[in-house]
């Protein structure tokens, strides 16, 4: 089971978006074979807040659409559990509401699809996917499209 803690720093996210993202990520976790109790957090911020995080963690001084902060280090399969009854923490996702709105307009698709895409993209990062190399990027982006299409959020 996937537990998601949502935090809206913008006070602008409708409960329907939260519900949709929760359903998309639970669906994706099932498709990815994520077993056991797992937890992650999603925080919605504005462009200036995500720019500060991007500058501090990636040394890129500009806003971005989404940031992922995995708890597992590269090559690690499992975090040591403090208590076997506690869920495994996958990591944190930060989404810029401003960028999501801009990109939904730019790509001419719904805000629902954009939020779902960004959240799914980050979940795949938390699960170890990457897009540093071209072959990895193709694999990751195909996986995203397959999951979104199967869920019913096709690109229009």
From TrEMBL:
GO aspect biological process, one term: rRNA processing
Residues given in the record as Zn(2+) binding sites: 121, 125, 131
Keywords: Cytoplasm, Endonuclease, Hydrolase, Metal-binding, Nuclease, Ribosome biogenesis, rRNA processing, Zinc
Pfam families named in the record: YbeY
A single MF term (Gene Ontology): zinc ion binding
Cofactor: Zn(2+)
Cofactor note: Binds 1 zinc ion.
InterPro entries in the cross-refs: MetalPrtase_cat_dom_sf_prd, YbeY, YbeY_CS
Enzyme Commission no: 3.1.-.-
Subcellular location: Cytoplasm
Family: Belongs to the endoribonuclease YbeY family.
Protein name: Endoribonuclease YbeY
The species this protein was found in: Salimicrobium jeotgali
Lineage: Bacteria, Bacillati, Bacillota, Bacilli, Bacillales
Name of the gene this protein is made from: ybeY
